[in-house]
Amino acid sequence: MEKNKKLFKIIGIVAGVIGFISSIIGIFVFVTGKRLPEIIPTDAGTKTTVFTFPPDPEVKTTAIISSTEEAVSAKYPAGINEGRPRVVDGANLLSDGQIGILDERARDIIKRYNMDIVIVTQRGLGGSTPMEFADDFFDYYGYGWREIATDDIATGSGILLLVEMNEYDLWISTAGAGISVFHDRVVEQIIQAITPELGRGEYYAAFMHFLSEVKRCLED
């Protein structure tokens, strides 16, 4: 019985700590009116990219990329933040090799045209709309190409493709110079171009097609 009492005390302490953390998160959600995006692979054994969401642009956040911890300052560098992956496969649609090829291809286009490119897959958006999730992901994870280093979160240029698998939502978010390059008609054309491959479950081909369409638009 004494062991049981100790066990119950330990459980009670743990429950209290969890309740305290939950209340803090609840206060944040209530005050800000938005949930923190969770970009966590559904099968942690096959992917190693994990993000923590920075609630304050001045606070440093940690990105775990390919099992290597790297502290990334929230200040936005000139060019792009090289430490961020350009393909974040939270829904586990791709192999590691495919992710590597897509990431390299995206970086080649970014370097040539000074426009950041991000592909994100996810299962569930934590209560956010696809637009909210995509916009917040691009901004708060420090994406975007910039001419000079800055602390201004709204200065980056780029395009982000979000594929959400629970509701089968597809969204393209643009920022900075990307807004004029990838205007509504162009975005609709890109979506129409890649939707058949996505519908057939050919995700790698769809994302390669997306990068080709982005490159074509930047060349025009």
Provide a descriptive summary of the structure in words.
The protein has 6 helices and 7 strands; from the N terminus they run αββββαβαββααα. By secondary structure, the chain is an alpha/beta fold. The protein has a single domain (37-219), classed as Diaminopimelate Epimerase, Chain A, domain 1 (Roll), CATH 3.10.310.50.
Structural class call reads alpha/beta
Distance between the termini: 77 Å
How many structural domains? 1
Return the average pLDDT rounded to an integer: 76
- What would CATH call the architecture? Roll
Highlighted features:
single chain; 220 residues; alpha/beta; Diaminopimelate Epimerase, Chain A, domain 1; 6 helices; 7 strands; 44% helix; globular; disordered N terminus
Describe the structure in brief.
With 220 residues, the protein is of the alpha/beta class. It has six helices and seven strands. The chain has one domain (37-219): Roll (Diaminopimelate Epimerase, Chain A, domain 1), CATH 3.10.310.
List the helices and strands and how they pair.
Elements (H helix, E strand, L loop, with lengths): L1 H31 L17 E2 L9 E5 L2 E5 L14 E3 L6 H18 L2 E7 L7 H11 L17 E7 L4 E7 L2 H4 L2 H16 L3 H17 L1
Parallel strand pairs: 4-5, 5-6
Antiparallel strand pairs: 1-2, 2-3, 6-7
Helix pairs in contact: 2-6, 5-6
